[in-house]
Amino acid sequence: MTVRKGRGEVEALASWLLDRAKSFSDVEGADVLYFFSESHSLSLLDGEPEENSSGVSGGIGIRVIGQNGRQGVAYGNNFSWEAMRDLLEWSRANCLLAEPEDGIRLYSGSMERDDSSLEQYDDDILSIKPELRMNACAEMTSAARSMDSRVVSVRAASWGDGDGETFYASSEGVSGWKRSTSVSCGVAVVLQDGESFEMGSYGKGERRLRDIDFASYSRLAVERTARILGGKPLATGKYTLLLDPEISASLVDEVGELFCASDVHRGRSMMKGKLGARVAGDVLTLTDDARLPARMGSSMFDGEGAPTGRTVLIDSGVASAYLYNLQYASKDGTITTGNASRSLASLPDVGTSNLVLTPGGESRDSLIRSTDDGFLVLELMGLHTLNPVSGDFSLGAKGVRVKNGALGGAVAGVTISGNLLELLKKVTAVGSDLEFFGATGAPTIVVEDVAVAGS
């Protein structure tokens, strides 16, 4: 059974593993990653309990680095000394069998350990009682039902909360702890109007309990679903699209991944060779920022113990930087951006932290009033099928018609197709209504002259 270990015990285990690793002549370095989390979740289906669970997870992993950049990793959740010896032997054996790689090294600089400015931990979350979870889910269910007579089912009113801590240490003498809390809740509803049915949802995840507004999530889930209930296809043609912040955030997630140097080197990104080139409309600026207070992707150090920071990926439409861990920074003759990403069982790779699309100065209502012929996209299906190399996509969409600056009827049964680079270059306006969804923040964006296949 996985149990939370005291910090002193974890540090002693890590020190022992690292000292033992350094004693082998074929091991040039090593690092250790420990993680533990405790979580609670509750979900109601039409007011009746569907899931009510609590659990813990965690373990410890060690990576050893051998000659010529060979690496091996092993992990487990048995913390006995015998298990630690086995873990070290497995990681060493995996290292000896691995292929050599360029640029493999450990971080040897200073580590920032005081993360209080990032507001990643909220004691109020640790004080949550089962009654609060149940009452919140019951209130979300009741609120959703009372908002619209067409609500025929509250398919889920869910709540989750938890806390976790991570420890990193390496044979270079770098070590540090970080801890975080999280809380999330959301509502999924089904609406019926005659023969038309529509299912929709809305929810948020936050680091602090006070940032959760579960009452508004019921309202937004019902309102958004009602907007697209009974939707009809548009005539095939080219339209101006207004992407709702949640849709913009999903798009930003896909774009951000294209700037990970590991994917660029592997030929899996259409941003390869694009630095300094225009890749989006000049109103679009995208950053990766791990130092934002109370955000889900924030941290003082990354998966290699290196300090995190802020990197501008797209600056007024121009691709300006990639994200790096130590290995790929070495390959490109630069420094890490603090974007090493890893789990207990994986070798370091490159990942995003908090992706933020810089908001503009116009409100959502103003953007709608400026649109003559288009639709507000509230649902985009199949974004994961976007080709990261060619940028080609074909996505199903639902939303609300916008005609002569006013919202109209529901839109459904249409397909948006094109190329991601061309789509980004057609972004002509960015709203002021920045919202965060997980570790991604985005406002409404306006994209002109987009091909839409409908009736």
Structural commentary:
The chain is of the alpha+beta class and 455 residues long. The chain has two domains: 118-163 and 180-227, 2-Layer Sandwich (PmbA/TldD fold), CATH 3.30.2290; 231-455, no CATH class. The chain has helices at residues 7-22, 81-97, 123-126, 130-147, 214-228, 245-257, 261-265, 326-331, 364-369, 420-425; strands spanning 27-45, 48-66, 71-76, 151-170, 175-193, 196-206, 237-243, 286-289, 310-315, 318-319, 340-341, 349-350, 355-357, 373-381, 392-403, 406-419, 427-430, 435-437, 440-442, 445-453. The strands form four sheets. It has a six-stranded antiparallel sheet with strand order 3-2-1-4-5-6. Strands 10-9-8-13-19-18 form a six-stranded mixed sheet, with helices on one face. Helix 1 crosses helix 2 (81-97) and helix 4 (130-147) runs parallel beside helix 5. The termini are far apart.
How would the blueprint of this fold be written?
Elements: H1 7-22, E1 27-45, E2 48-66, E3 71-76, H2 81-97, H3 123-126, H4 130-147, E4 151-170, E5 175-193, E6 196-206, H5 214-228, E7 237-243, H6 245-257, H7 261-265, E8 286-289, E9 310-315, E10 318-319, H8 326-331, E11 340-341, E12 349-350, E13 355-357, H9 364-369, E14 373-381, E15 392-403, E16 406-419, H10 420-425, E17 427-430, E18 435-437, E19 440-442, E20 445-453
Parallel strand pairs: 7-14, 13-19
Antiparallel strand pairs: 1-2, 1-4, 2-3, 4-5, 5-6, 7-20, 8-9, 8-13, 9-10, 11-12, 14-15, 15-16, 16-20, 17-20, 18-19
Helix pairs in contact: 1-2, 4-5
